[in-house]
What does this fold into?
Amino acid sequence: MKTLDEYRIEIETALRALNLPGGKFANLYSPIEYAMSAGGKRIRPVLTLMTADAFGEKAPEAIKAALGLEIFHNFTLIHDDVMDKSEIRRGRTTVHKKYDENTAILSGDTMLTLATQYISDVPDEILRKVLNSFNEMAIKVYEGQQLDMDFEKRESIDLSDYIEMIERKTGSLLGTCAKIGAIIGGASDQDAEKMYEFGLQTGIAFQVQDDWLDTFGDPTTFGKSIGGDINNAKKTYLYVSALQQDGEIVKALKEAYRIPAGDVRVKAVTRLYEKLGIDESAKKAVNHFSSRALKAINGTSLPEEEKERFRKLAEKLIGRKK
Amino acid sequence: MKTLDEYRIEIETALRALNLPGGKFANLYSPIEYAMSAGGKRIRPVLTLMTADAFGEKAPEAIKAALGLEIFHNFTLIHDDVMDKSEIRRGRTTVHKKYDENTAILSGDTMLTLATQYISDVPDEILRKVLNSFNEMAIKVYEGQQLDMDFEKRESIDLSDYIEMIERKTGSLLGTCAKIGAIIGGASDQDAEKMYEFGLQTGIAFQVQDDWLDTFGDPTTFGKSIGGDINNAKKTYLYVSALQQDGEIVKALKEAYRIPAGDVRVKAVTRLYEKLGIDESAKKAVNHFSSRALKAINGTSLPEEEKERFRKLAEKLIGRKK
It folds into this structure.
């Protein structure tokens, strides 16, 4: 069994060997190479390789599917960045800003088909299972993105709707990365579903934690600047939690958001969150979804030492940069 | 064996029964229903059903794959319309104009995954073959669209480059519709490839004919207004043919395009095309690619009466609205 870093290096090596066409099609494929070279933790394909190894020492057989899942993830980032008009991603210019919107749309489309080709590079007897998992996940991710866009225009959102959105948009991909790894590793259907649940709940916990970090994180370790979500008036777990309070508090929150973007607004909203105990309730939510992830991993037939590796992975992912 | 119209009605009936999710996901799926209800000849899925029947009376088994190919076609139209900023498609407001660009991007993405799900609804033993054909075709279509966008910015284009573009953008999908129908119908690999060739060459002939009709067609039967390509300065087969002439003629052509869009420009460019014999050379090109399509169909093991049905289909498609 390899370390997370060894898996990540395998992914990076395989990504550098993708060997996409150039020449007359350079305008289509260069943006894909640019997007895929941004680095990062590669947590999704690492989870696929790790699960394939845990169930059947099948990481080498899972590398193409793992790449496909990472390509899919990057396709969604490119199209999301167009939709959100984001200019920076992982410290670099986004694809539609570096090239143009048409390129971002078309190279993204190409990545979705490339991803499907890569995840299909599995033995015939599991092709349909893997393909179905992948396509069902993709639909969930689009539905999640649709809910996310809808929420940005809505005045009131239930906390359960918010959780459903991040479950689809973030959780289902992590769940599917684990599930496809499990299928390739030869896991039983029951174990594959438990691994899906592990990835899904870890993904939800990760996203709530990310929302928390954006306001309450340590600026020296968080990587992004603190308060970005407040300045961009993003509908986060914290914001949606505050919306559930009585009318006076919601009124105060909306007033705080009338302060122009900057430190004064960030401080005003943060103080309101603290007063409402939302920093604590968000942490509780992270623990709640983490526990569900741990319950899922404990329910698999994996030996204890393997379970422990997944617990540590979840801890590393969710408990990062406190 | 059914008539083209009977197949088309089967497709329309199946499309009406798609039963996409509504409710909280209406903003994602309504645009898909809108796009899919535009009607048209449904030539692509009809070709799939007809080929499946010709080789094995398997049209009922091919209906899902046929729908998948039609959904894929409409996905490309939606994203192309965003990229080209087109406002009208088949006499109706385009998706990104009726809704917005973000919706067009995300609903388009969803359609690509739905298409993949539909074409995968074939028996296990042919799943990989069908899926590979579909994915390879999709990549060709994106590459064709990229070339098309590149050409719009380029001063000089070879005629062979133009043909390669429409081969990818239009031909490969028709080829794949026939090929997947053949695979489902139980055709040999050789017959399936011949059917691909038939669809491919028919598609190229169709596109060159479409370019010709836009300038030289009969306004009472063409359906679109004559001269639209000239007014939009589109790089068509006619325009690219003129570019191959000597410098003086290219100069005259570019001068004619300096006339503001309208009847005067259309007449000036049309007269130049006629003077250069480009109306005749385009017709010859249509015949050239049609002959290749007929050669392909004649090379299959289909009985003569089946071959005749495909010849008539090509004739109807290419020779339309003269």
Summary: Chain A is about 75% helix and 0% strand. Chain A touches chain B through 34 residues (CB under 8 Å).
